[in-house]
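README: folding subset

This subset contains proteins for which both the sequence and a predicted structure token string are available. Records are stored as plain text. Below is the entry for Flagellar biosynthetic protein FliP (244 residues), shown exactly as it appears on disk.
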Amino acid sequence: MKVWILFIGLLITGLVEAAPGVDAFSVAPDGEGGQTYTLTIQVLLFMTALTLLPGALMMMTSFARIIIVLAILRQALGTQSTPSNQILIGLALFLTLFIMMPVFNEVNQTALQPYLSEEMNTMQALEAAAEPVKSFMLAQTREDDLALFARIGNFGEFNGPEEVPFSLLLPSFATSELKTGFQIGFLLFIPFLVIDLVVASILMSMGMMMLSPMIISLPFKIMLFVLIDGWALVFGTLASSFQI
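--- output ---
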């Protein structure tokens, strides 16, 4: 989280850096022996940029794929609101931090620490912080999705991954993550669907058509998921699905 605040903060600082003499706030006498304090546009822009932090966390990390898979898994189990949305989001958030930790560490070493020690200016630190994030996103993005948005936006051809701009990479990465998340969710859904079909066929053959198959299949699906250590398998598969 600290890395993303730095990333957005460096961007806003770089935008206002070209205006020398603009302080975060100004102090002026009020004519009655006191002082008045006025916030400048710099602080306003910085606070506004913080509202982009949730969007960056969801669409520039592994969060989207993880939450999609967990939501489809809950639907396949048929447990309605168990686990709750808050628990799913918490699981997705902490698993995202685990997966993104190598990227965050690289940003810390190459951008945050040199910036704090005044070895880099704002724009240099921003460029250094963007490189690990960009490399992570490129590793998860399909070439077909990049080609699609490059054709739509008339970006032309690129000689290498380093030439792909963020404006093209962001929608391509989001599309690839959605596609991958639904593919993993589909594979998770199949075993539970088979259990539902078997239970429904047995109930119909016994003439118990008024009994909902979901009531009978739910404990079997939960038992199967627990016996195979499903949560560990799902989290391990999600973590290993990212190329870092």
